[in-house]
Amino acid sequence: xxxxxxxxxxxxIEKRQSVAFWCNPISGHxxxxxxQQILGQGPKLLIQFQNNGVVxxxxxxxxxxxxxxxxxxxxxxxxxxxxxEDSAVYLCASSWTSGSLTDTQxxxxxxxLTVL
Amino acid sequence: DxxxxxxxxxxxxQEGRIxxxxxxxxxxxxxxxxxYKKYPAEGPTFLISISSIxxxxxxxxxxxxxxxxxxxxxxxxxxxxxxxxxxYFCAASGGTASKLTFGTGTRLxxxx
Lengths: 116, 112
Known about the structure:
Number of helices of chain A: 0
Radius of gyration of chain B: 13 Å
Structural class of chain A: mainly beta
Distance between the termini of chain B: 38 Å
Number of strands of chain A: 11
Oligomer: heterodimer
Mean pLDDT of chain B: 94
Low-confidence stretches of chain A: none
Radius of gyration of chain A: 13 Å
Strand content of chain A: over 45%
Largest sheet of chain A: 7 strands, mixed
């Protein structure tokens, strides 16, 4: 079974530029998550999708971050414009369902973003 | 507000000995707890979990203990192996949402 795929793996941009990340979840997984992991911290949930609907985006900085999940499968996360503090690893995860405490989240390898 | 805390940023243990990783939480609504393991340049992988109705869960060399009154959980690895060297994250969730709150991680190094 293929895992969660993410691209690109690394990205370096200058502040005020735009950037987009792509995620392909495990086939059949209804729920998709985007996390931000700043160096020295644990992953922090940015947004959660159930199929193509948003379940939780309470920690997404909506003035600069946006995300969509096309046809309930792939997802893109965009930052426009980027700030220095956005430097982090962006992790995508997926699970079979949401609303279940025991539903395991499977993570992709992440995209490391450096904003100069 | 750090609701899940891992106060030891690193731990070094000899191969064959026991590794004990600790985690504290403050939110009394948390009722499901997980440990994830992360190798460099990879995403976290699920290791073991425990529901608040239990105080112990075991899976091979890995055991998680939960002390609800102290709001504390620990992960025991026995015996420790060099391949266990990784960063371990404690995570918690509560209520009906599967949203996870992660700790800051503990880097475990198992030496020969």
